[in-house]
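Input/output pair, single chain:
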Amino acid sequence: MLKLTKVSKVYGGKVAYRALTDINLEIEKGEFVAIMGPSGSGKTTLLNIISTNDAPTTGEVEIEGHHPHRLKKSALAKFRRNELGFIFQDFNLLHTLTVEENIVLPLTLDGARVRDMKEKARTIAESLGIASIMKKRTYEISGGQAQRVAIARAMIHEPKLLLADEPTGNLDSKAAKDVMDMLVSINQQEQTSLLMVTHDPQAASYSDRVIFIRDGKLHSEIYRGESRQAFFQKIIDMLSLMGGDRHDISSVRV
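Output:
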């Protein structure tokens, strides 16, 4: 589904900075993978390259048999809209639009019919429990509701790969649990592949596999067994072994 082959990233300047070194990574269709590591380890750079917001210096990225970094600008924009969904820590909603208008934005860009857009928005809003706030502006809703809106917008065009960057970072513990339950449900019911960068061991424990990255290189990975609680503890243990500053791990919520 997703395959990275010897992906490296070097940023130029007076002093060149190597952010990633020879990353080899594969994610199967329908798999839920979390990426963790200390600040400055290369997690966000890796996500930016997979999302096509940045390009690798060397190496190859393949998504569903396509090589997006070889596409021209217009074809790449269409590929991103059709194949990828994005969820961000700060929601990235447009405050001048209603909740419904934010959700249908990807379809608007594709020139879909208004009736079809409204029907799709209503269906997904009901599934995420936000049907009652569709006419509200984004500044009138809670953080947890805003992240649900962001998930609805990311999923409305049924992407093959959902990319989440610290999706629980600005949420309290209950809202964070609700969002993670939703992402697991989407992953399992829609068979949407999900790649999530997070500092939060609790959020990571919902995944099938956690990949740890350090100093721009893959450090290790662990797989979930039957028990999410045991997986959570393994994640904590691995983060402790890797070191890093205290703020690199968000407050633990069990």
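Confidence is low (pLDDT under 50) at residues 249-254. The longest helix spans residues 173-190.
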